[in-house]
Amino acid sequence: MALNLEDKKTIVAEVNEVAGKALSLVIADARGVTVEDMTRLRASAREQNVYLRVVRNTLARRAVEATEYVCTQDSFKGPSLLAFSMEDPGAAARLFKDFAKQNDKFEVKALSVGGELLGADQIERLASLPTREQALGMLASVTLAPITKLVRTFNEVPAKITRVVAAVRDQKKDAA
């Protein structure tokens, strides 16, 4: 389908706006993936708040120019499927990693987080980042641990006194 100049400007502006708000970007090559599989991938992306878009390479290069994803410009070779994680930095990486397990023809080309370009082999590193809920749970457990230990220590003092008094009582009872 031929795009006129206005359509191209609209695509670039839309992708640029999304890239400005996104936490991470994963680029993949989806050649050979069936339409049914792509439909399932798009549905999963919507559920996880991942912006998924196939964009021409020249338009993608222009769209990421003024963002932290400018480092990915050299990765736009061949067909490119862009996935921007909007809430969770590892969401797009987890989505593509799981999808690649089911589809041999699906290939992750590059990823970027915080202005740093990572190779496709680093997808596990990005996919293993905890979700927001998991991170908050870890933070809560780390913050709660010292308080829990302090309470246990305070509770141990009366328990020790009780055990000592019981031992003295038993000793006097045996002596009598």
UniProtKB/TrEMBL annotation:
Keyword Glycoprotein: no
Family note: Belongs to the universal ribosomal protein uL10 family.
SUPFAM superfamilies to which the protein is assigned, alphabetical: Ribosomal protein L10-like (SSF160369)
Protein name: Large ribosomal subunit protein uL10
The entry's keywords: Ribonucleoprotein, Ribosomal protein, RNA-binding, rRNA-binding
Signal peptide: none
InterPro entries associated with the record: Ribosomal_uL10, Ribosomal_uL10-like_sf, Ribosomal_uL10_bac, Ribosomal_uL10_bac_type, Ribosomal_uL10_CS_bac
Summary of the function given for this chain in its UniProt record: Forms part of the ribosomal stalk, playing a central role in the interaction of the ribosome with GTP-bound translation factors.
Assembly: Part of the ribosomal stalk of the 50S ribosomal subunit. The N-terminus interacts with L11 and the large rRNA to form the base of the stalk. The C-terminus forms an elongated spine to which L12 dimers bind in a sequential fashion forming a multimeric L10(L12)X complex.
Domain of life assignment: Bacteria
Any one GO biological process: translation
HAMAP family, per the entry: Ribosomal_uL10
Lineage per the UniProt record: Bacteria, Pseudomonadati, Pseudomonadota, Gammaproteobacteria, Oceanospirillales
